[in-house]
């Protein structure tokens, strides 16, 4: 009996120390998402440029409330960790669930009852373990009522408890838990469940992008401005709101895009920020990967501008105007994250980079 008690106490002590390190000493997160929808080969990822990679996205089955991976994605998801560890054996991988194309109503329904939350939680842990991931990432875009925010808090608390129980019962390191959340601590008028986030998540990925886009704004704008004087729409404002709400800076990871948006200018001679536009250009929604943007600049001899006030790049040629992040924006944002004591940064998504230009700039700016 004494031997069993000692073993149990040692396990609890190990677990506590791991959680302490995870919550306060998660050294740094220099991360990016890989999107299955991009068709970018996992084997082509230069994982040496990152400390963490997110595999996106696993799905939520609305009938069973279980986390699933489509048969088409299973080969890549099940080998994701092994594949990226070939270039970086210390890379940490997380399975991301949901995403912008998933149905928020499915997550709201799942989170509304204890039994359905348990189905989600248990299946997520089982799937992460079976595929060799080191953690799980929630991307519910977005809880849209006060009740849904409350249920999100219940989900996070129960998820953490289950992860801890699974770790203690198996003697394995607990899975990491993160979530990609809105740019600020409130989703417009709805406050996030701050205490549950603080208690349950190892960190949050702050989605500091998609501020302006041709589908929802009829003027040009910096899609991922770090600063935006005179408005409440910026990465800095979002980070400050999370800190003011009670989330420690070392649990915040600043997000930035490896893509941009193209607008059609009403007047080719009015080509600065907040110029009138008539809809998206180039693609149906105006979204373009960084590599595509660089090709457009080269092929059209487009004029390039970096605005250090808002920390955003744009280019224009004729009536086509594209807002995006280039190396100047990325390096400034990474420096901001490091200088302000944030845990790190992440990008959406690796397949949109151009020869690892942005990933390399970010990694070198943060340093070792």
From TrEMBL:
GO molecular function: chitin binding; chitinase activity
Keyword Signal in record: yes
Record GO cellular component, one term: extracellular region
UniProt cross-references to SUPFAM superfamilies, sorted A to Z: (Trans)glycosidases, Chitinase insertion domain
Transmembrane portions of the chain: none
Keywords for the protein's UniProt record, in alphabetical order: Signal
Signal peptide (UniProt feature, chain positions): 1-25
GO biological process: carbohydrate metabolic process; chitin catabolic process
Domain GH18: 28-368
PANTHER family found in the cross-reference section: CHITINASE (PTHR11177), GLYCOSYL HYDROLASE FAMILY PROTEIN WITH CHITINASE INSERTION DOMAIN-CONTAINING PROTEIN (PTHR11177:SF383)
Protein's name in the database: Chitotriosidase-1-like
Taxonomic classification: Eukaryota, Viridiplantae, Streptophyta, Embryophyta, Tracheophyta
């Amino acid at each position: 009996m004494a031997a069993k008690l000692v073993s149990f106490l040692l396990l609890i002590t190990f677990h506590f120390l791991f959680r302490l390190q995870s919550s306060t000493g998660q050294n740094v997160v220099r991360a990016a998402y890989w999107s299955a929808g991009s068709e970018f080969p996992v084997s082509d990822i230069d994982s040496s440029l990152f400390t963490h990679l997110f595999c996106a996205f696993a799905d939520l089955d609305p009938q069973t409330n279980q986390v699933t991976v489509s048969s088409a994605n299973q080969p890549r998801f099940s080998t994701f960790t092994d594949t990226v560890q070939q270039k970086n054996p210390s890379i940490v991988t997380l399975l991301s669930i949901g995403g912008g194309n998933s149905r928020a109503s499915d997550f709201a329904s799942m989170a509304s009852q204890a039994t359905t939350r348990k189905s989600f939680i248990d299946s997520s842990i089982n799937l992460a373990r079976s595929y060799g991931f080191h953690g799980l990432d929630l991307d519910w875009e977005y809880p849209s009522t006060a009740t849904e925010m409350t249920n999100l808090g219940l989900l996070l608390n129960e998820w953490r408890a289950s992860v801890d129980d699974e770790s203690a019962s198996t003697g394995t390191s607990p899975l990491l838990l993160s979530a990609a959340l809105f740019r600020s601590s409130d989703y417009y008028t709805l406050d996030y469940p701050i205490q549950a986030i603080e208690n349950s998540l190892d960190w949050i990925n702050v989605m500091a992008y998609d501020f302006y886009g041709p589908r929802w704004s009829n003027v040009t704008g910096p899609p991922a401005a770090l600063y935006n004087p005179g408005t409440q729409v910026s990465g800095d404002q979002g980070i400050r709101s999370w800190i003011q709400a009670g989330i420690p800076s070392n649990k915040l990871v600043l997000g930035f895009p490896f893509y941009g948006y193209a607008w059609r200018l009403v007047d080719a001679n009015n080509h600065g920020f907040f110029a009138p536009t008539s809809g998206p250009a180039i693609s149906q929604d105006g979204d373009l990967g960084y590599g595509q943007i660089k090709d457009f600049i080269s092929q059209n001899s487009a004029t390039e501008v970096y605005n250090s006030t808002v920390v955003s790049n744009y280019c224009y040629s004729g009536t086509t105007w594209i807002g995006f992040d280039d190396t100047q924006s990325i390096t400034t944002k990474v420096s901001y994250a490091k200088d302000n004591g944030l845990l790190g940064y992440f990008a959406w998504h690796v397949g949109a980079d151009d020869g690892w230009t942005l990933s390399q700039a970010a990694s070198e700016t943060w340093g070792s």
